Write the C-alpha cells for this entry.
Amino acid sequence: MQETLQTLVGGLSLGAVYALVAMGFSLVYRTMGLVNFAHADIAMIGAYAASTFYLTYKLPFAVAMVVAIAVTAAIGLVIERVLRPLENKDFDLMLIGTIGFGIVLQAVAILIWGTTGRAVRSPVPAAPLDVFGVRVRTYDLLVMAVAALAVLGLAWFLARTKRGAAMQAVAMDHEAATAVGINVGRSNALAFSIGAGLAALAGGLVGPMLYVDASLGGALGIKGFAAAMLGGFGSVPGAVVGGLAIGVLDSYAAGHFQGYSVLVTFLVFTAAIMIRPMGVFGERTVSRA
Amino acid sequence: MTRSSTPRPRTGTRTTARAVVCTASALAVALTACSAPGESDDDTKASSGPIKVAVVNAQSGQLSSLGDWEYKGAKLAVDEWNEKGGVDGRKIQLKLFDDQGDPTTGTNIARRLVSDKYVAMIGTAESAVTIAMGPVLQQAKIPNITSGQSDGLVALKSPYLFLNGPTSTTYDSTLAQHLVKDKGYEKIAMITNNGSFGKGEHDAFLKAVKDLGVTPSTDQVVTTDQKEFSAALTKIRSTKPQVIFIGSEEVEAGLIVKQARDLGITAPFAGAAPQGTPVFIDTAGKAAVEGTIVSSPYLSNDVSDASKKFAAAYQDAYGKEAELHGAKAYDGANILLTALKTSNGASGQELADAIRDTRYKGLLGDFRYDESGVGITRTTIGVIRDGELVPQQ
C-alpha cells in the first residue's frame, strides 16, 4: 500500500510537468492547427535560462522563472514571425520549419552553455513531508501548485478575455475571424508566445528535479506530446489529464516492469489511442491543415 | 502575407538534403574502400606527412560531458608529444568526431576513418558505440584504444581493440570484495539501468557478490531515460539494505541518489567510475553523496607525482580540474603514441602488435596488455567526503 502511494506521488509530480508541456503543444495546435515540434527544445532553453538567472546571476527562483518565460516568449514570437509567410500556403513546410527550429535551438544551447549540463539545487530547502510513511517533497508540491495555477490562468484567459475569445474564433474559422476584424497574425503570435512561455515554465520547474542539458527537450517532449495526444490534442483539460496519466502510468510501469517500462508505457498509450483516437477530451473541429 | 521569402525553413530542408547526399556519398566511398582488400596493408608505412589519429566521442547528447573529458585528456597528450617534435619528426594530427553517443552514428564514422586512412582511433567512452564500430575497424586493421569498460568489448575478440582502463568485472569484483569482506555487509541492494554500461555493471557485480556468498536483497532495473525512481527506491527501502550498489551513468545515478535521500533512505551508495565524477556529485548534491563508496583506478589528482603533473597541465590547458576520464584518455593516447614511436610510425597489424608490447606506467597504473586487449586489472576503493573523492582510509 505504502509503495503504491509512494509511486503515485512520484508519478504525479513529473506528470504535472508533462501536463504543462502538453498545454503548450495544445495551445498552438488549437489556434493554428500546427504541431510545434520546437516546443520541447524551447522548454530546454527555458530550463537553461531559468537555471542561469537563478544560479549564475543569483536572482530569486521566482524572478529567474519570470525572466526565462519572457526570453522564451520572445523566441516564440520570432518563430511565428518566420513561419507566418507560410501560413495557409505550405503547411508541411511549416511543420518542418518547427523541427528545424528545434535543431537550431539545441545547437544554440550547446554554443552558449557548452556540452556539460548543470544541476540546479532546489529553491525549497524544507525537508520532505512524511504523510503516513509516504514522503512528499516540498518542491514537488510547489510544482503541482504552480502547474494548477497555470492551468486555471490559461482557462480563464481563453474563456473570459477578449484576446482569448479572439484566439478561439481564429481556431474555429480564421477567414470569418479576419472578416470581423480579428488580426489572425497577432492572434497566432500570441498563441506561440504563450505556448513558449508555458514551455519555459515546465522546463524551469523541472530543472531542480532533473538535470539541465541540451537533451532535456527530448526527455520532456515525447512524454509531453504523448500526454497531449492522450488527453485530446488541442484541449486544455485534456492536457492536464493526459499529463498526469502519463506521469503516473510511467511511474507504475517502472515499478512493475522495470527495464521494460518504456515499452509498457507506450503500449498502453497506443492501445488507449486506438480505442479513442481523438483522446479523452478530443474534438475533431480544429483542423486547419 | 505578401512576403514570400522563407529563409529558415528552406535552409532546414536544404541542409537535410545535403546531409542525405553527404551520407550517401560517404557510404559510396566507404564501400569502394572496403571492396579493395589489402589496400590499407599497402601503405603500412607512409613515412611522410602528419600521422592521422581520430578521437571519436560524444560531443552532443546526454553523454557529451564524458566525451568532452575524454577529448581533453587525449588532446593534452598529443599536444605534449607535438611540442616535443611528434613521432620521428612527424606531427600527430588529431581530429575529433562527434558520435552523439549513438552506435549508428559511430558506425558511419568508422567507415569514414577507413576511407580517410586514419592510422588509429582513440575513444569512444561508450562501450555500445565502440562495439558497433569494432568490426569495421578490425577489418580495416585500425587499432582502437577505447575508454569503454564493458566486458562485451573483450567478448568482441578483436586484436585491434585495446582498453585504456579496467573492465566492469575488475571494478565490481574489487568493490564486492570490499563491501563483503572488509565491511562485512550482508544486505546489499542493487539498482542498475538496462543500457550497455548498466547491464555490464549488473552482471559483473551480481556475479562478484554471489561468488562471495551474498545474494542481493533486491535487484532493481531501471531504463536509461527514466527520471523518476519512486517505485524502485521504495522497494529498496523496504528491504533495509546496509549499502546500495548503483550501476548507471553520472546524471541518472545522481538523480537516483537525490531521490533516495528524499525518500528517507540513509544507506550509503556504492559504484564504479561514474560515481566518482563531479557531474554525479553535483546532480545528487554534496550532502546526498556523502559516504559513497567508489571503485576506481584513479581516485584523485593528488595520489602521485605523475597525477599532480597531469592535473597541473590539464588546469593550464583548459582551466578545469582533471578527473578520471581525462586521465584514462591521456594514458590511452600516450600508449598509442609510444607504440607509434617504437614501431617507427607503423600502422595496421604492426601498430597493434606494438601497442600490445608496450609497457606503460600510467596515471591509472601499470599497463601490460594481454591477448584480450585489457591492460590493467586493478582498481582502488575511495569514499566521497565533503564532495571530494578521497582514498579509503
Observations:
- Residues 285-289 of chain A have pLDDT under 50 and may be disordered.
